[in-house]
């Protein structure tokens, strides 16, 4: 078994720095975050499994992508502006439609109050274009995030299929479980109607655990107040 240790906020494996996929040191801006990621590595066997390391993946997104390809990462996140699932309602299934109204309309109100977004709602799956000013407002909002917050957002927006739910999670309006529930109303409805599918339930459980891990990462970030300091930038990103 390889020995995982921490030195100067950098993870070491048998005394040598662990590296990101693009060959940068795997280091974090806070001792508690570094130890969380170290524990994730210590839980691995001889062959690390990417799917069981959500904290490491967030760190790698921050170090490799958010710090060096920020504009592309922001564009990838903003791609959800016109496909946000909270805007698509099941008008042909009254019970599900009512559940969506009950759960998602409050998020629409939050998005308008907090982010000044006015989102169009439709029934069915045919795509609709949202007001172009929404993307401008969201891009300006994302520019306020440091690389670690942006990496957390990037890690959850796809499994949540919603930029609004992801931002409500990042901003502390929703915790991990409520964000997950809001984004998977249809699956929960189907399970209640027709029973559980073991394969689907296992997939959803993995997604929930990943979002909970992102929530834990975000909580430590907020608690420490140590985002990307200039010293950290010079050390890791030179």
Describe this structure in words.
By secondary structure, the chain is mostly helical. It is built from 11 helices and 5 strands, in the order E-E-E-H-H-H-E-H-E-H-H-H-H-H-H-H. A hairpin with a 2-residue loop joins strand 2 and strand 3 (16-17). It is globular and about 60 Å long.
List keywords for this structure.
238 residues, globular
Tally of alpha and pi helices: 11
What portion of residues is helical? 55-70%
Main β-sheet: number of strands, strand sense, barrel status? Answer: 3 strands, antiparallel
Please trace the helix and strand order, writing H or E for each element: EEEHHHEHEHHHHHHH
Which descriptor suits the 3D outline? Answer: globular
Helix-strand category: mainly alpha
Ends distance: 32 Å
Spans of at least 5 consecutive residues with low confidence: 226-238
**Average predicted confidence as pLDDT:** 91
| Beta strand count | 5
- Measured by DSSP, the beta-strand proportion falls in 5-15%
Q: What is the radius of gyration computed over CA atoms, rounded to a whole number of angstroms?
A: 19 Å
Strand order of the largest sheet: 1-2-3
């Amino acid at each position: 078994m390889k020995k995982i240790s921490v030195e100067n906020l950098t993870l070491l494996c048998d005394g040598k720095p662990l590296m990101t996929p693009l060959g940068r040191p795997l280091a974090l801006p806070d001792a508690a975050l570094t130890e969380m990621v170290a524990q994730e590595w210590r839980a691995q066997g001889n062959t690390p499994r990417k799917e069981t390391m959500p904290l490491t993946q967030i760190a790698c997104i921050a170090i490799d992508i958010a710090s060096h390809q920020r504009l592309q990462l922001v564009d990838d996140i903003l791609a959800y502006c016109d496909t946000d699932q909270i805007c698509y309602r099941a008008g042909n299934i009254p019970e599900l439609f009512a559940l969506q109204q009950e759960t998602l309309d409050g998020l629409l109100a939050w998005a308008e109050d907090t982010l000044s977004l006015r989102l169009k709602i439709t029934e069915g799956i045919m795509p609709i274009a949202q007001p172009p000013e929404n993307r401008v407002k969201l891009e300006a909002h994302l520019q306020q995030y440091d690389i670690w917050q942006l990496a957390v957002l990037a890690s959850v927006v796809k499994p949540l299929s919603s930029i609004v739910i992801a931002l409500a999670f990042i901003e502390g309006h929703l915790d991990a479980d409520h964000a997950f529930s809001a984004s998977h109303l249809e699956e929960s409805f189907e399970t209640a109607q027709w029973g559980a599918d073991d394969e689907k339930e296992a997939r959803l459980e993995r997604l929930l655990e990943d979002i909970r891990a992102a929530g834990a990462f975000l909580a430590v970030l907020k608690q420490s107040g140590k985002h990307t300091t200039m010293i950290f930038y010079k050390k890791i990103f030179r």
